[in-house]
Amino acid sequence: xxxxxxxxxxxxxxxxxxxxxxxxxxxxxxxxxxxxxxxxxxxxxxxxxxxxxxxxxxxxxxxxxxxxxxxxxxxxxxxxxxxxxxxxxxxxxxxxxxxxxxxxxxxxxxxxxxxxxxxxxxxxxxxxxxxxxxxxxxxxxxxxxxxxxxxxxxxxxxxxxxxxxxxxxxxxxxxxxxxxxxxxxxxxxxxxxxxxxxxxxxxxxxxxxxxxxxxxxxxxxxxxxxxxxxxxxxxxxxxxxxxxxxxxxxxxxxxxxxxxxxxx
Amino acid sequence: xxxxxxxxxxxxxxxxxxxxxxxxxxxxxxxxxxxxxxxxxxxxxxxxxxxxxxxxxxxxxxxxxxxxxxxxxxxxxxxxxxxxxxxxxxxxxxxxxxxxxxxxxxxxxxxxxxxxxxxxxxxxxxxxxxxxxxxxxxxxxxxxxxxxxxxxxxxxxxxxxxxxxxxxxxxxxxxxxxxxxxxxxxxxxxxxxxxxxxxxxxxxxxxxxxxxxxxxxxxxxxxxxxxxxxxxxxxxxxxxxxxxxxxxxxxxxxxxxxxxxxxxxxxxxxxxxxxxxxxxxxxxxxxxxxxxxxx
Lengths: 264, 295
What we know:
The complex is a heterodimer. By secondary structure, chain A is mostly helical. Chain A is built from 11 helices and no strands. The longest helix of chain A is centred in the N-terminal third of the chain and has 34 residues, at 54-87. Chain B has helices at residues 2-33, 61-67, 70-102, 106-121, 124-134, 140-147, 161-186, 190-197, 202-213, 215-230, 234-239, 247-256, 261-294; strands at 48-50, 54-56. In chain B, strand 1 (48-50) and strand 2 form a beta hairpin. Chains A and B meet through helix 1, helix 3, helix 4, helix 5 and helix 6 of A and helix 1, helix 3, helix 4, helix 5 and helix 7 of B.
């Protein structure tokens, strides 16, 4: 009996710790006062101001665009890696392949961002492209470091499911390509969607790599938010937080829904 | 024949992308880190010079420069210590949570797991920002402390190394819990009962049975927290003060403020060698080892 009490307390405290800051943020977003910390009364004023803030709205649209595109590319390439690592026996320099596809997971973002920026500058000196940095360079960088996350999810899923199904289909006369499109991809579809959602969120949330590879006309949402809260507090960002937290948590729930399916 | 073509397409498309946009950029960091710096744009000399034939123009001065200056070494050490402390606290909070989640019944377990990971999905930047609100001088924590009479005037909780640790432990906790849970979930709970039946008390059961079995989870979780924290830039920037300098910050300033590209590259490449390479090699060896043992 005593140990189950301890258990409940630990879990309660843990969840409290995880959710308390989020609740504080949402609470203060309804504060009427311009000075964030002094409570003046309940109001939706800052939500209203948020929707009229062109800088934030524009950044939001840019971020969504980059996130959707880079998630799509990263998913395609990540599925290819996951599939190759599990199903294809002959990969030239396989250790190097594994190195390339897993290092972005552990490399500090700062180093990744710096390397991308220096790469784009060198490339520009060499062939004159990209002439300036902006949405395209952020997109390329985000694809590069999202690939690894998708690849792991797909790899786990493919290792999990029975190869016999594919072999049976092959015995029944399906060729390689047909097995892939009619059997393998449909079975791992939930994991592919989960991978896309993860990549989308990572891209949407990234500040460091985007700060390095951004240029004129490519201020993403985290860049704008960071510039607003680096030195102080901003009531508009509070309102934005509440909305964004809510939206991202829903995306997270979808991710669990899709990724859960393979856990039998 | 067709199969081969199709396999090649699958293997080489991502191969091409990663070599072009990941490997070459890393190589460029290395290249610039051994270039001679100069005033100009770009602020370094080419490593190949063509006057009277090919001359290779490289230097290790940038490395000597950062490794002989306490400003750089000290910041890196600060980051390592910060990462060590944060990892320790993540483990301290994460382990009991992961353990109790893993020992719950299956319905509750899934709900709890989702509840623990969901905050991780919400914006990283905004979760750090939340702590900025909580730790303000007139923030909620100070209000509580004042009302409880623990302190008579507001404490300066923000802009110091403790706020940084707080922010890191908070944002990285799910990264610790997930792998821990993954391993704790696998092991047979009857072992705990068995060890109790054999007369071991609670502490002995923990240290002799539970802890040794969860070592792989502890290692995985600790690595997931430790490595990114060493390179962490945003949290010290938002919550930290001028009492401590960290690796991320000096790398950023070396590049953007001092415009010393070779120096910044040398810093970055040293970070890769010291921090990332051992782990990548470990992972490759480990995956090969586990593959062999399975077959």
